[in-house]
């Protein structure tokens, strides 16, 4: 399987604080990978470095053979990578529908294409259709996460990254969220990078996993094997 995205020894700083230390990872075109690690490990920084939201000081990021290390975020999205950030970052004063349209900013859809895409999103989460005219800020946490996922899909990505999609959600919504992420990967054939604190679920649904600790990748491997590893059980699965 050819590598679609390759992160090669990136180091990212906030001022003098080094958040990532020569981090490398790769994802192939048919894969779902997960990244687990405790608070402050650098998971979001890794996502933001890939997206061009923060710039690594050294190392390279290659996507589909193209060097995107210094590419601006809007161009990264245009090139086919989408990011559903931690905390959703929806536009609270805009309607559900307008939020979805914002997700397509990098595409020049015709009116019909826009309608089709929005209908497609409503098929994934019918609740969004019922609330399409409502201000996004008035939605429940779970509905906001659904909206964030769909907004991420509106750009028709060829790779999608989810940052803590289960954070702060009720268990029943968490289950629905993981089901949809799996469907996005399997039915729509989109490679997925999943950042999760829920290590058990991350390992259950991904093919491979990377463990990030204090800005360093300390372990990586097949998820089903890591699920059985003593180290992972002790540190991330509660023994
Ligand atoms: P969490 O799961 O809590 O979101 P994380 O693994 O995503 O954590 P990051 O948010 O990437 O971790 O943070 C990595 C390190 O960089 C932390 O020490 C954090 O305090 C620091 N950091 C993150 N963003 C900034 C910023 N904008 N300015 C300065 N330091 C930052």
Task: Please describe what this structure looks like.
The chain has 10 helices and 10 strands. It has helices spanning 43-51, 73-78, 96-102, 111-124, 126-130, 141-153, 171-186, 199-205, 223-228, 230-236, and strands spanning 3-14, 17-28, 32-36, 58-63, 66-67, 81-84, 159-163, 192-196, 208-213, 216-222. It has a 6-stranded mixed beta sheet with strand order 6-7-8-3-9-10, with helices on both faces. Strands 2-1-4-5 form a 4-stranded antiparallel beta sheet, covered by helices on one side. Helix 3 (96-102) packs parallel to helix 6 (141-153). The longest helix has 16 residues, at 171-186. The model has no long low-confidence stretch (mean pLDDT 93). Bound molecules: adenosine-5'-triphosphate.
